[in-house]
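Appendix B, record 7
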Amino acid sequence: MTKKVIDLAKLPVRESTVSQETLEATPARVVAFLRALGTVPVLRKGLEARGYSADEHRRGWALLQAASGYDADGEGEVAASQVDPEVRDAIAEIDAWDEDGFRIVRAALGRLHPEQAKTVLAGLGPSTGAAAILGVETLLDRLDTLAKSKHPADRAAIATLEVRGLTEAERKRLRALVKVAKEGTSRDDAPSEETVQMADDRQRILVELRAWYEDWSEMARVTFKRRDHLLRLGLAQRKVRKKTDVAPTADGEAAGPSNVTRGKNGSTASKSGSTTGAFAGEST
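Structure tokens (predicted):
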């Protein structure tokens, strides 16, 4: 369905230079970037000086729409009523699990069992839809291989994952979800050729979208130095202010830092030297 927005035959063949997790996060970054360029004239004019044309702007939107599964004609979309609720729920649960699941595996194995991490996570990462089903299934296959291994290091890696929550019972639960999800996408208990092709097409589009974004976001960093401009483009993050002992005033404005110290008798003295108590200069 993405062919109606982007002609895949005209896309160059590229290898991804970032992780799958980064690829999947790219559309959200591109939304902020394109929205800023479409609504803030000073940003658009500044980047136009670097060669950013209307055609490039349209291409960014087209790639974003294609990566998001947009179909201008609505063809190829499956009505919700045609999808088995059990299958739909299984796919949704796998989608919801895979981001945190891959994060658990990466964190747990990356530090304590780096060799096993390389084997288990090679070429894998969070995804959506059919790609998520295939990714989680491959992950489970590799973890099962570790669990059956007689090598102490492999068994130790599985033991670590058990402690982190990826228990044998959890792996069996996920395996059952994958089975249900796959049965819903193909009669022969495997993703159909069309499903696999759609996942491959989306991957190509994500890689191309990433290349487009890296190109123009780097040009934007060269062009714009003001932090507010970079924030609008999604190229900077707002700083989180650390908590202090400064309390807000009634009107919402922060009060200035306290310059008052308290004496042993309960009186207070400002840094300027004045004192307050029941009366200034009160004796005890």
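Remarks on this record: The chain has two domains: 2-77+201-232, 83-192. The mean pLDDT is 79.
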